[in-house]
Each structure stands twice: as C-alpha cells, then as structure tokens.
Amino acid sequence: MKVVDLENIDSTNSYAKSNIDTLEDKTLVFARRQNSGRGRLNRSWVDLGEGNLFLSFVLKPADKYRKILPNLTQYLSVCLCKVLETYGLKTQIKWPNDVLINGKKIAGILSETVMQGSILKGLVLGIGVNLNAQKYDVEQIPDRVVTALNIELNHNVDLDKFFNELTDEFFKGYDSFLENGFAQIKQDYIQRNCFIGKELNVQVFNSVEKGLAKSVNDNGELVLLNKDNKEIVLTIGDIL
Ligand code: BTN
Predict the structure, then answer these.
(1) What distance in angstroms lies between residue 124's CA and the mean position of ligand 1's atoms?
(2) Do residues 152 and 69 make contact, with C-beta atoms less than 8 angstroms apart?
(3) Are 11 and 37 in contact (CB under 8 A)?
(4) Which residues does the chain have with pLDDT short of 50?
(5) Which residues partner with 116 through β-bridges?
(6) Looking at beta carbons, which pairs linking 194-202 to residues 24 or more positions away fall under 8 Å?
(7) By C-alpha distance, which of 218, 213, 219 is closest to 232?
(8) What backbone torsions phi and psi does residue 91 show, to the nearest 5 degrees?
(9) Which pLDDT value is given to residue 143?
(10) N or C: which end of the chain has fewer CB atoms below 10 A?
C-alpha cells in the first residue's frame, strides 16, 4: 500500500483522478490541507483547518467486480463507524453513506470512477472526516448539521493515528468485500441505520421520491413504500 502525502492540494479526489495512470491499485492520496474539496451533488467540502482528514483511496479492481463498486461507499461508511466506535461513540448511518454522531454529520464520502470509453481505469473513493474543528466553524456550514470528533470527545484527535486506524480497517476486509459485496456488511450497516421505518423525502437527480423507508435490500438499495403501497427501489439519492 503506497501513500502520496501532500501538504496542500485542491482536492485529493481531483489529484487521484488526474494521476490515475501512474497511481497503483490501493494507493492512498492524503492531504493535510484541501482548498477546493468536492462533495456529492456538486456541493463543496469545507476544509475546517489543520488536523482534519482528507483522503482518497485509489482502487483498480478487476472488471468482474464492477457491480460491487457502487457499494464501496457503504463499505467505507461501515469501516468509519467501527473506528469511531473505538473512541467510545455511538454512530449512525444515513443511506447511502453518511455517518452521523448524535444526529450530526461527521464525514462525507465521494466515489468517482475514471473511465476510458467503456474501460474502467480506476475508482477514486474520497473521504473527509472532521477530526479537529472549531465549534463556531462547523456551525457555519450551510444546509446540514455537522460535528467533529474533537467536539464530541472534548479533546483533540491524533490525525495520523486516525488515518492508520481507518485505512487498516478498510484494507482488512476490502478484498473479501469485492468477492462478497454488500452481503458482507449488510448486518453491520442495518444495525446502525437511522432511517428505516421513517417517512422520507429522497432527492434523486431533479426529482424527489417520497415514502416510508421499508428496508435496504441485498444490493444496498433503499426500498421505499409510496402512498399507494408500491415499492420504489432507489440505487442513488440523498435523504433530505
Ligand atoms: C459529501 O458530499 O458528503 C462527500 C464529501 C467528500 C469529501 C472528501 S474530502 C477528500 C476527498 N476529496 C474531495 O474533494 N472530496 C473528498
């Protein structure tokens, strides 16, 4: 496992995508500061200062694993929960891959594929975790309620230690996850969910699907029951 250790970059995901040809499978692109971090749905990811985690996993799995790739964000969210729990915290997952502590978002995950025609050159799985932030700064983040690990624990967190814990947890089960897919983590994922049984509005591209969250199926998709009691199966989306 190789690590590209950068002092300051626009975005670790952008760096990994631009250098995909030269970066080996399982390379970690890590930056101490990130000045144009990107999030899902064209949002930005705010750098809350020194001591926060900005990391992209460069993955080049064989083509036969292609159908598993969308589930890697869910796999990473479960890995993150397990690490956070070693700090004595209770974690929750909001479909598909938001990790919450006390109802507040502590991390964001962005998966991007790099294609050449129909050939997959690689997948860049980016994660930002708020580890050391000022309460005032997290409160300024628009649209969502956010926290950081130091705020939850009342003490600063060692970034390098956390980096090792998260990447070790990820690679411990990564090869088998490619073989087993979502089934490998289904129980771990469901037991931490905070949305099943709730009435949800889910943004899917430009429309909003409404319904009662019934379950997460064996592919990691969200199953909603709409007002006519019909099942709607969502592969991607954002719970509003
Ligand atoms: C989200 O919208 O919740 C996803 C945020 C993902 C942020 C991480 S930080 C490291 C990597 N580089 C980026 O530009 N984005 C991801």
Answers:
(1) 11
(2) no
(3) yes
(4) none
(5) 119
(6) 194/92, 194/93, 194/94, 194/100, 194/103, 195/94, 195/95, 195/222, 195/239, 200/224, 200/239, 200/240, 201/239, 201/240, 202/234, 202/237, 202/238, 202/239, 202/240
(7) 213
(8) -115, 155
(9) 81
(10) C
